[in-house]
Every structure is written in structure tokens, then in C-alpha cells.
Design brief:
- There is one protein chain.
- This protein has about 260 residues and is mainly α.
- It contains 13 helices and no strands.
Amino acid sequence: MGAGATALLLLAGVASGLAGSVAGLASLFSYPALLAVGLPPVAANVTNTVALFSTTVGAAAGSRAELRGQRRRTVRLVALAAVGGTLGAALLLSTPEGVFELVVPWLIALGSVLLLARDRLRALADRRAMAAGTAPRGAPLTVAVVLIGLYAGYFGAAAGVLMLAVLSVSATEPLAVTNAVKNLATGGANLVAAIGYAFWAPVDWTAAAVLACGALAGSWTGPALVRRLPERPLRVAIALAGLGLAAHLWLTAVH
């Protein structure tokens, strides 16, 4: 790998770490960078998944304050996402190359719309829970987390957007806390998928190592930004960025 490609991947890794830990949009920078240095789509996809597990490590280290008291919830979500990630990795390894490109934009767009409508969805869920006299059931959240984990293991671009959207609707808490839990949950899916890809997929280990170093640095500082930025504008910006990524991936898939 030449110096130019190394520099590009390192910078893309830093940007991916920041975006992933703050907004769940790590692949907005890393996946196109891998394509730009010459990797074919599937190799870029699996290399991206392996490299971006470092964002989970960095984000967890930078989110210790937000994760206090979240152990039981986080362990459950990580386990559910890991189940989905295993299924997603198996699906990618057993389906024809390129199939996922047509589905991904719609999933990203859905997650972005959920983020924009989060407050209304929360209010609706609260009214229904009060009318029924019970707390919302956990089954919908369980299914959603497993499906997002499946998506993260299959392709992963903006899986964090989907996870953040679902967790934001399911709990009333500061965005920084939801974001920290989201980072670990998606990390569970990424880890099991990365292990599978390490054995059975064409991972470019040099590219993955360079990208991972940058992503680790970026994700370590990302949670500090979440603490300081106002919640509503940040959420809207995340959603709009997700819609932009969905449009880009759709145009790429159909041309």
C-alpha cells in the first residue's frame, strides 16, 4: 500500500471514528475510502467491518460516565445484537455479491426517519402504555435489535443510525447515554461478524489495520462531543446525514 492510500485510510478512519461514536455513520467515510484505494465491494465491506470494531473500543473508553448503571441493559443488547451479527455475516457469505447494495439505502432511510420522528413516537408509546396500564413490552425491542445486528453483520453502513433510532424511541434518557449504549450494542454485532470474516472472507489486513488505528483515535474523542453539543440539533443532523448517505448508496447501486 502506497503512502497516499495509507494517509487516506488513516484520515478516513479518524473521521469514521468520530462519526461512528457520535452518530452511527462510520461507514460514511470508511467504506468509500476502501473502494477508493482499489478494494472490490465485498472485500471493502468485510475489511470495513473488521476495522471498525475499534470504534467500539474507543467509544467505550470515552463513554465511561454515560455507561455507569447501564451494565445489565448493555449486556442484554450486546448479546441480542451479536446473535443478529452472526446471522448477518452468514447471510453475506452465502449470497451473491452485490445483493445487499439495493436493500441498504432503504434501511438507512428508515432509521433516519425514525430519528426525526423520535419525540412523536415516544409520546405515542407513552400514551398507549398509560391507556393499557402497563409498561411497553420488550419483544419489539428484542426483535428490532436482532434485526439491526443482522444488518450490521451483513453490511453495516449506518447500522448505528438504526440502533440509535430504536433505542431513542424505547427509552427516555439523554442522547449521550443512548449513544453510548448504542455504540456497545452495534459493537457486539461487529465483533462476531468480524471473527467470521477473519476466517472466511477476503479481508485486506493492511487496510484494516490502518483504518482501525484512525478509527480508534476518532471514536475515543467522539463521546466528548456528544456531551457538549445540544441534543435536538445533533439528532436532526444525524438524521439528515443518514438520508444523504441513503441517497448516495441508492444512486451508486442503480448506476
